Amino acid sequence: MPARLLTLALAVLIATAGPAWAQQRGQAKEQVEFGVQVAQRGLWREAIYRWERATQLDPTYAAAFNNLAVAYEQEGQLDKARAAYEKAVALEPNNSLIKQNFDLFKELNDRAAQKDGRQP
Amino acid sequence: MIERLRKTVVSLSLVAGALASGCGGGGYVEIPIQTPIAPKLDISPFQRVYVAGFLAGANDDVDANMETVRLLRSQLRNKNVLRVVDADTVPLAERALEEAGAPEAASAAAAPPPAPAENAPVTEAPDGQLPAVQQESDLDRYAKVFDDKEYWKQIGDEHEQALIVTGSVLFVPHARSGFVQREQETYDSFGRRVVVPTRSYMERKGYILRPTFVFIDGRTGEQLYSESFREEILYNSNQQTPALSSYFELMDRLLPTFLNTLSAQKIRGNRVLLK
What is the pLDDT of residues A42-53, one digit of tens each? Predict the structure, then answer.
């Protein structure tokens, strides 16, 4: 009997949480796609706003963190870019596109750090 | 019962997984970016920049001092960050010899040069050039001229308290022999192109460029910043490349970094945006 109750509770929990989570992810995805569109038109600040919103809606959305990192790079905010890349890599460690972006960033950031005389 | 519970959890997690994968992975676009790198020096107190000249050893092929002065002035003019003072260079070599101490300098001039660096030819010092400069350590003994605040303050006063760019430039011939790995293109029996790495012994010669740029506050004579570089280029020994073109090729590699000292620089690249 307790096991049956537990199953039921679990099912109800997932049944209610699932759509809510999917809705959050759906909204985050809309923000990400809109961000990509505006970034392609050079509106990077608007893109940052959209991608930040996406990461708030869905903090597990690696693509949003990746795109945010790229936008921070474009804006010269290298510390923020590193943090966003690290988050994206942590969320999707096997995503080769994120890793490729991060490697390119590190190469650039290390050069900048050497010039500044700070640790990369 | 427990088995049923397990099955329920597994099937629900599969649904959740499918949901997640359905919402994720929506393609990507490649996009060009330009990352701004902040300048290393705050140049806001200055209106002018004066490239004062460089310590350079005697070199028959290239007057590294004058070529560097001309190149940096033209690059700074193009960048338009500060007004470039178009005045004669300072007699830096003479001053450096004085500061190094007359007897020492005289003996340096008279003494046979130290063991030439890697096949560098021994050259005689024309007037106004430092004697026996074949390697970095030769220039180091004259480097204290850059710490002479009074001297640089005076130079600054003469040029409306400009930011002063000076330093040393070592440009010397260089030769190196050894095994070099190259890719050799061959065609197999089916006519397919095959690239095979091969190692062969080669004698190569070229140049080393070792500049140090020193930035001095013309208002106080104090050093603000200095940075050293080392670049080398090697060619096949049978290739005849003029020294001056090698000099410009090597300088071209480090000019962006030099300019980034005074002005922001944008580094172009491509990144991938995910959907």
Answer: 999 999 999 999
Where do we find the tokens 């996406």?
A54
| The pair of three-digit structure tokens given for residue A67, joined into one six-digit string | 């795109």
pLDDT at site B184: 80
Enumerate residues 6+ apart whose C-beta is below 8 A from B80: none
Q: How many Cβ pairs closer than 8 A exist between chain A and B?
A: 87
Nearest-angstrom CA–CA distance, B101 and B144: 11
SS (HEC) of B1-14: CHHHHHHHHHHHHH
CB A10 to CB B20 under 8 A?
no
Amino acid at B78: N
CA–CA separation, B186 vs B21, rounded Å?
Answer: 46
Q: Which parts of chain B sit beneath pLDDT 70?
A: 1-26, 58, 102-136
Could you tell me the sign of the dihedral formed by the alpha carbons of A91, A95, A101, A104, in that order?
A: positive
pTM attached to this predicted model: 0.63
Cα separation, A58 vs B227, whole angstroms: 45
Provide CB contacts within 8 A for A6, sequence distance 6+. Answer: B5
Give dist(CA A81, CA A99) in Å, integer: 13
**DSSP-derived secondary structure letter, B141:** T
Distance between B274 CA and the closest CA of chain A, angstroms: 5
CB atoms within 10 A of CB B93: 24
Spatial distance between the Cα atoms of B83 and B72, rounded to a whole number of angstroms: 13
| Phi, psi angle pair for B54, to nearest 5° | -135, 150
A67 contacts in chain B (CB < 8 Å) = 273-274
Q: Which residues of B touch A54 (CB under 8 A)?
A: none
Q: Position of tokens 């397990």?
A: B6
